[in-house]
Design brief:
This protein is mostly beta strands. The chain has one domain. Strand 4 and strand 5 form a beta hairpin. It starts with a helix and ends in a 12-residue tail after the last strand.
Length: about 180
């Protein structure tokens, strides 16, 4: 794992214009992957904004904005019975679907419209271990630039490749493990 981490270090150190993944989406004990089987998760995100900001975070001049975004991210997870290094091998994938509605008034004129777009495909391989009072998981995934990223689209896709390595652990204080992350 150390060698794999060192190989990916140059990619991790590069600056990113924006993240692909919404922080906090998985919850507290979601380093605990489910037992072998096929699962489906359905993430739903809503976002409203009424202010346009500059890159430094200040309100952008006279712009009047009213925007709404809804993103649905269906995710399929398959944890196999196969073990590697003592952990269960798993794979998962998701594909964001994004709807945006915007009304913007600027000194240059008004704009109003709505768009629907498909985001970038994410695919990942995982390993998960389940001990008496601990769960561990590692994963390596890729966001492929398959989504709408051109002008006049939702820009649900980022238009570039992104690699994502994850690792996590859940410690259960008492001997009874509560239910794993609800899938």
């Amino acid at each position: 794992m150390l060698a794999a981490s060192l190989v990916t270090l140059p990619g991790i150190l590069q600056a990113q214009p924006s993240a692909e993944y919404v922080p906090g989406a998985e919850g507290l004990n979601c380093a605990s992957l489910p037992p072998p089987g096929v699962y489906f998760r359905d993430y739903n995100y809503f976002y409203w904004a009424d202010q346009l900001n500059t890159p430094s975070g200040n309100k952008y001049g006279p712009a009047d904005l009213d925007t709404f975004t809804y993103a649905n991210l269906p995710r399929v997870i398959w944890i196999t019975d196969t073990k590697f290094l003592g952990g269960y091998v798993g794979v998962d994938a998701l594909l964001p679907l994004v709807y945006q509605q915007t009304r913007l008034n600027t000194p240059g004129g008004p704009y109003s419209g709505s768009t629907f777009g498909v985001g970038d495909l994410f695919a990942e391989g995982t390993l998960s271990w389940h001990l008496k009072q601990f769960d561990f998981a590692v994963g390596s995934g890729v966001w492929a630039p398959t989504g709408d990223s051109g002008p006049n689209t939702t820009r649900a896709g980022k238009g570039f490749w992104t690699f994502m390595q994850t690792a996590g652990a859940t410690w259960y204080i008492d001997k009874i493990k509560p239910g794993r992350c609800r899938l």
